[in-house]
Design brief:
Radius of gyration: 22 Å
Largest sheet: 7 strands, mixed
Bound molecules: flavin-adenine dinucleotide
Strand order of the largest sheet: 7-6-15-16-17-14-18
Number of domains: 3
CATH topology of the largest domain: FAD/NAD(P)-binding domain
Structural class: alpha/beta
Oligomer: single chain
Strand content: 15-25%
Helix content: 25-40%
CATH architecture of the largest domain: 3-Layer(bba) Sandwich
CATH class of the largest domain: Alpha Beta
Distance between the termini: 14 Å
Number of strands: 19
Length: 485
């Protein structure tokens, strides 16, 4: 036993692992953090290329400083600095035109009003009211709206098992509203809105707008886990990079430590795994868990993947909207989902662009810019899916060049990240974007617990224990687990 607390081993230094390690070390425990890569951050990291600091993936942080990522940083006295998007960015509907996306509740009304006046967003308010009152009654409707607006935990729990699509249909069948919710579902939880849990989606949406803090860390995505890891080391923690765990040691139903790929055994009072729930089952050995739990874990579904193309541009192109851009061809919400299910591609692709250098210009050499375009895809790493993701990116790239032709002429370098590279980065056999899918049956009370049936073996990260958008769910899980130990 360490003099001031427990001996704890954390497997993996993603946002969840680095976060929980820093929180527990700051509380006086003796923590060893083992990461198989030579850098921290997991999927939320940045790599250097030709003088640019470019994120491995593309990230926006829906609650920024005001969310759990900022909370961990404050608690461990980290150095993370946040930069905010004002407004969040723009959407372009091929058939309806431009719409500005508000980043705060205060600016939502003017921007939505403008979209209504221009006809970009014009649901039939009377029809919507009629259908809402029919389904909820007048008092019920007022009560429901109030509960949504304050993200009432009890209420969200009751709609966790309803899909976002079914929930929205109680208010409206307006096609544009469904398209927008379909897009937000891919942006926030990276699954179709017909699968996404309404409770989870509304939690993410309401917190994003009410916290009014959507942002990005100074220095790039790597600064999040980087800041936690520096605080961890300052407080005396032990970080070993390039150190993969081969086995979680379990005896008499209790976690006793880990064995590394090199064969070294590290004893511990508590083991916390950021390797993902399915990999953790394998690392500890399926036979250490009740058969029911093992089969439950094996049947859990992952989110879809996000496949991206990063461009280092030799100049800044003002026509590409600041911070965030979503292009939407004339497709319905159903068509958005269909392309994933049927494995077929429409000629014209929706795509997202994020521009980290609009937040932090120092991520690129002076006067240059990073533009990252992305598109959702399947997450299983099979030869067909790898081919499919590459084709999706080929078509998305064609769309990017159609909408912003000058990008093509100013590419200094470009690089893709797909399911294959994501799976290699996390050490999982799949290339999903988030972690476990936040679909009906896997959120709220149905979300896997952070505590496992093996005593003193915990899960941390986006697979267990919290709600939210990707990294913020991982950070929420770290805060939760650090409280429980
Ligand atoms: C393209 C893309 C876009 C995204 N966009 C956003 C976004 O805009 N906003 C957002 O909030 N989220 C976004 N996400 C999701 C977000 O990155 C993840 O949900 C989050 O980073 C997951 O964190 P985590 O701590 O659960 O684990 P991970 O990032 O999966 O980290 C796990 C760590 O454990 C290590 N590990 C695994 N096995 C072992 C082992 N045996 N031994 C030692 N170490 C091990 C891995 O190497 C890794 O470093 C995006 C993801 C992708 C891929």
């Amino acid at each position: 036993m360490a003099p001031s607390g427990k001996r704890i081993v954390v497997i993996g230094a993603g946002v969840g692992g680095a976060g929980v390690a820093a929180l527990l070390q700051a509380r006086g425990h003796s923590v060893t953090l083992l990461e198989r890569n030579l850098y921290v951050g997991g999927k939320c990291t940045s790599l250097e290329k030709n003088g640019y600091v470019c994120d491995y993936a593309f990230h926006l942080y829906s609650m920024g400083e005001a969310g759990p990522l900022g909370e961990i940083n404050r608690r461990v006295r980290g150095e993370l600095r946040w930069l905010r998007a004002r407004p969040m960015g723009k959407m372009f509907f091929q058939d309806r035109g431009w719409m500005t996306l508000p980043a705060t509740l205060g600016t939502a009304l003017p921007y939505l009003g403008l979209a209504y006046a221009k006809g970009v967003l014009r649901p039939s308010v009377i029809k919507m009211l009629r259908s809402s009152v029919r389904n909820f009654g007048v008092m019920g409707l007022l009560d429901t709206v109030a509960k949504i607006a304050r993200a009432d935990a009890g209420f969200l729990h009751t709609i966790d098992r309803m899909s976002m699509r079914d929930f929205l249909l109680q208010f409206t069948d307006d096609k544009t509203m469904h398209r927008i919710m379909g897009i937000f579902s891919f942006l926030l939880v990276v699954i179709p809105y017909s699968e996404a849990s309404a409770g989870e989606m509304l939690w993410c949406l309401v917190n994003m707008f009410s916290k009014s803090s959507l942002g990005y860390p100074q220095g790039g995505a790597r600064e999040i886990a980087g800041s936690y890891a520096r605080a961890f080391l300052r407080d005396g923690g032990s970080l070993r990079q390039g150190c993969a765990v081969k086995r979680i040691l379990v005896r008499d139903g209790k976690a006793r430590g880990v064995e590394t790929e090199e064969g070294e055994q590290i004893p511990a009072d508590v083991v916390i795994s950021n390797a993902g729930i399915k990999s953790t089952l394998e690392l500890a050995g399926e036979d250490q868990f009740p058969a029911e739990y093992a089969s439950y874990v094996k049947n859990l579904k992952y989110s879809r993947s996000a496949n991206i193309i990063k461009y280092g541009l030799d100049c800044t192109l003002p026509e590409v909207p600041r911070y965030f851009f979503q292009y939407m061809p004339a497709q319905s919400a159903r068509q958005l989902d269909d392309f994933l299910e049927k494995g077929t591609d429409p000629d014209e692709q929706s795509f997202v662009i994020i521009k980290p250098t609009d937040f932090d210009p120092y991520l690129a050499p002076l006067g240059k810019q990073i533009v990252i375009a992305g598109k959702v895809g399947p997450s299983e790493v099979t030869p067909e899916n790898i081919r499919f993701c590459e084709e999706v990116l080929d078509i998305a790239e064609k769309s990017v060049f159609n909408v912003f032709p000058r990008i093509k002429d100013h590419i200094e370098w470009k690089q893709r990240a797909t399911i294959q590279t994501t799976s290699a980065l996390t050490g999982r056999s799949t290339g999903e974007c988030i972690g476990l899918a936040q679909c009906v049956g896997q959120t709220g009370g149905d979300k896997p617990r952070a505590a496992t049936p093996v005593k003193d073996l915990w899960l941390v990260g986006s697979d267990a224990g919290a709600r939210g958008v990707g990294t913020e769910m991982a950070a929420g899980s770290a805060l939760y687990v650090s409280h429980q130990i």
